[in-house]
DNA sequence: TTAAAGTACTTTGTAAATCAAAGTTACTCT
DNA sequence: AGAGTAACTTTGATTTACAAAGTACTTTAA
């Protein structure tokens, strides 16, 4: 494949999904609200991107509590880690050809 | 700005525009047909992305000839280089926080 | 105890982006 | 004349993105 963009993952074309993944790579898990604040998104927008990520098997969801309040946290699956690393490798590959 | 995606450039959310820019960073200039083949795109699709890039002042167009045939080449402007480097820096920044 | 607020969504509706395919203009080559 | 090439533009369909509002439930404050 000579095509420099052929190995990029379409799921990660979205800046928001890219942001979610990069946060979850550092944090191991993050709550809905933390993600919302870090990425400065509306509820609906975040929820739909999380949903896309989950549908692709890249995220897992854990519904729990903090005290008495519901608290949903998200973390990356094995497949998600693999896919994300693959995407980053493709990106770096593309960029490396520049310098 | 704590938001990890806040410094990404929206123009470069598109994999195709990312690909065009990365090719033109290496090649100094490239013809319509070369870009089309490298990125495996239809005429219309490529033309519209080139147009977006040009509208943003990131690309300049040179209409010339190869022998008697028309030959349009594209190259990156100063602003384009700056914007693209800024985007890459933002990307690398985001990625660096991971490792 | 009632009202306000928080959590995590889903639904709705709109606007924007993406793309292939076909059409167009202006050649050139045979 | 007829086919072919280059570089588009136009059209139309599909997908994506997003804000805003609505939902269901719980909790905290007055």
The overall average pLDDT of chain A, rounded, is 94
Number of DSSP strand runs of chain A? 3
CATH superfamily of chain A: Winged helix-like DNA-binding domain superfamily/Winged helix DNA-binding domain
CATH architecture of chain A: Orthogonal Bundle
Give the tally of structural domains of chain A.
1
Describe the oligomeric state of these chains in a short phrase: homodimer
Number of helices of chain A: 4
CATH topology of chain A: Arc Repressor Mutant, subunit A
The greatest interface between two protein chains, and residues involved on each side, is: A-B, 27 and 27 residues
Largest sheet of chain A: 3 strands, antiparallel
Shape, principal axes of CA atoms of chain A = elongated
**Terminal-residue CA separation of chain A:** 20 Å
Unreliable runs of chain A, pLDDT <50, ≥5 residues?
none
Beta-strand residue percentage of chain A:
15-25%
The helicity of chain A comes to 40-55%
Name of the CATH class of chain A = Mainly Alpha
Radius of gyration of chain A: 15 Å
How does the helix and strand content of chain A classify structurally?
Answer: alpha+beta
Order of helices and strands of chain A: HEHHEEH
């Amino acid at each position: 494949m000579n095509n420099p963009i052929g190995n990029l993952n379409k799921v990660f074309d979205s800046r928001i999904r890219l942001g979610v993944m990069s946060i979850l790579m550092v944090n191991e898990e993050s709550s809905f609200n933390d993600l919302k604040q870090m990425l400065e998104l509306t509820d609906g927008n975040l929820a739909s991107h999380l949903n896309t990520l989950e549908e692709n098997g890249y995220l897992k969801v854990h519904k729990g509590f903090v005290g008495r309040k519901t608290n949903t946290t998200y973390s990356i699956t094995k497949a998600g880690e693999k896919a994300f690393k693959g995407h980053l490798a493709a990106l770096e590959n593309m960029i490396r050809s520049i310098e």
